[in-house]
Write a structure and sequence with these properties.
10 helices; Four Helix Bundle (Hemerythrin (Met), subunit A)
Length: about 210
């Protein structure tokens, strides 16, 4: 169990920062990346992320910090959080393709790629993917039970919120009034009990950007 906890903790402190940094490279400079093109952008950013992973791997033990030991309580909490994460993931995977998760629609030239998802879990909450990420991060942290893992999990909350704000700005530019109407009827994080109804005809599934895999 100690080895498994260590591996899970390493995956968190090594894999999460590059996954979050991805969007701080993309969103603020999206105009530049659109001129370069989707394939070239993804290739460049993937290389940068891999280099970051390698750098963090070298200092993984320092990042993990103190081992707080194997605890049935924290493992149980991790299991509960993982169940919630899995439930959200199963719902949103029906709507988000790998291409969308990588941010390809917003990188398309002209800034009008994709359409806006307004159904399924996105009718209850604007950011189910990010809620899923936070719950998953804390599941990893509680399972590994390393001090550094908890620190990374706590820091991920404001960082993810900053990413959401950047994405909202980009989506406003891309979808205009359609997105403003969506903002008005669907909460950012805490889901509605009942899905919000979009006004008018043509309420189909709409593609949007989301962070990769993490």
């Amino acid at each position: 169990m100690e080895t498994t906890r260590y591996v899970v903790g390493c995956l968190l402190v090594i894999g999460l920062p590059p996954g979050l940094a991805w969007w701080f490279v993309i969103h603020p400079f999206v105009g530049f990346w659109r001129r370069i093109g989707v394939r070239s952008t993804l290739a460049i950013v993937i290389v940068l992320a891999l280099l970051m992973v390698l750098g963090l791997y070298r200092v993984r033990d320092a990042l993990l910090g103190s081992d707080l030991g194997t605890s049935g309580v924290t493992i149980t909490v991790a299991g509960i959080l993982l169940c919630a994460t899995t439930f959200i993931a199963l719902q949103r995977r029906k709507l988000l393709t790998t291409r969308i998760l990588a941010g390809a629609p917003e990188l398309e030239k002209g800034g009008r790629g994709g359409t806006l998802i307004t159904e399924g879990p996105y009718a209850r909450c604007r950011n189910p993917r990010y809620v899923e990420v936070i719950l998953g991060v804390f599941a990893y942290a509680f399972f590994s039970n390393y001090l550094g893992a908890y620190a990374v999990a706590l820091l991920s909350v404001p960082v993810v919120h900053m990413i959401v704000l950047l994405e909202e700005r980009e989506l406003r530019d891309r979808f205009g009034a359609e997105y403003e109407a969506y903002l008005a009827r669907v909460p950012r994080y805490l889901p509605r009990r009942r899905p919000a109804e979009a006004p008018g005809p043509g309420r189909g599934a709409r593609a949007r950007s989301a962070p990769p895999g993490s």
